[in-house]
Amino acid sequence: MTGKGPQTGHKVSHSNIKTKRRFMVNLVDVTLMSDALERSVHLRISANALRSVDHRGGLDAFLLKAKNDTLGSKALKIKQAVVKKRAAAAPAATA
Predict the structure, then answer these.
(1) Disulfide-capable partner of 61 in 17, 40, 57, 85 (CB 3.0 to 4.6 Å)?
(2) What is the DSSP string of 38-54?
């Protein structure tokens, strides 16, 4: 959800021999609650993204602020549903 991917680098031995390696993203399976959709959503996101979701005040606030090109396909569908639900609820609140 934050656009993270594997990084490359070197594994350096005691004798300073450098061998190529990959630093993988720390992925966790989580179930987050969407306030606008009033249901829970199962996602596989990085631990850093989970901290960002908590910092921004929940899944809905995180998705609304996130750029579409950094989100995965499942998160993008959830974002579109949240935007649609909020747009439908906005005229009802003003009436």
Answers:
(1) 57
(2) TEEEEEEEEHHHHHHHH
**Whole-prediction pTM value?**
0.79
Please write the tens of the pLDDT for every residue from 10-39.
999 999 999 999 999 999 999 999 999 999
Do 1 and 30 meet the contact criterion of CB atoms below 8 Å apart? no
Q: Which two tokens stand for residue 74?
A: 């499942």
The dihedral built from the CA positions of residue 41, 43, 60 and 50, taken in this order, carries a sign that is positive
The values of phi and psi at residue 52, to 5°, are: -65, -40
Using only C-alpha atoms, the chain has a radius of gyration, in whole angstroms, of 18
Provide the 3-class DSSP secondary structure of residue 60.
Answer: helix
* DSSP H/E element including 63: helix 59-65
